[in-house]
Amino acid sequence: MLARSVPAGETRLKQARLLALLIPAGLLGGALFSQYVGGLYPCEMCIWQRWPHGLAILLALIALTSPINSARTRMTILLAAFLIAVSGAIGLFHAGVEYGWWEGLTRCSTTGAASLEDILAVPLVRCDQVQWTFLGISLAGWNAIISLGGAAVVTFFAIRKAR
C-alpha cells in the first residue's frame, strides 16, 4: 500500500507548529539553565522576556493537539509567533539599555529570596549591566536576534500557501 502524499502547505504548517514550540522552549530553557546552573541572576527585564516565551509554548502545544488543517491551528501558530516576537522586542529594548543606546528602567531586581537573610545574600542585578556575552552580544541581544528571526520564520511557514 502506498503512503498518502502530504501537501506542501500541510508540511510547512507542521514545520511552523514545531518551530513555534522549539524556539521559545529552547530560549526559555537556556535562560533557566543560565540562572540555575550558570549562576546568572536575571534582572527585571530578563524576567519580562520569559513570559511571552512561556505563553508561546502553551499556544504551540495547543496547536500540536489541533488538527493540522484547522483554521484554529494556523491562528494559534501565528499568535505563538507574535509572542515570540514580543519577547524579541523586549530583548532588543533590554540590549539597547545594556549597551547604553537609550535610557532604561532604573529598578533593579533580586530573585530567590525567602527570608531577610536570603534577600541580603542574593546579588542585586541591574538591567543596564551586561552579565555575560558571546561574540560581543549579551543574552538579551541573543534573545532579540533568535526570537525576532524565529518569529519571522514561523510566520512565513504558517502563512505560505502551497503552489
Short recap of the structure:
The protein contains 5 helices and 4 strands; from the N terminus they run αααβαβββα. It has helices spanning 8-36, 44-65, 71-98, 116-121, 139-159; strands at residues 108-109, 125-126, 133-134, 137-138. It is elongated, with a radius of gyration of 19 Å.
Description:
Strand 3 and strand 4 form a beta hairpin. This protein has 163 residues and is mainly α. Helices cover 65% and strands 5% of the residues. The two termini are 27 Å apart. It has 5 helices and 4 strands, in the order αααβαβββα. The chain has a two-stranded antiparallel ribbon. A two-stranded antiparallel ribbon has the order 3-4. The model has no long low-confidence stretch (mean pLDDT 80).
Question: How confident is the prediction overall: mean pLDDT?
Answer: 80
Q: H/E order of the elements? A: HHHEHEEEH
**Beta-sheet strand percentage?**
under 5%
How helix-rich are the residues, as a percent range? 55-70%
Q: Pairing-aware structural class of the strands and helices? A: mainly alpha
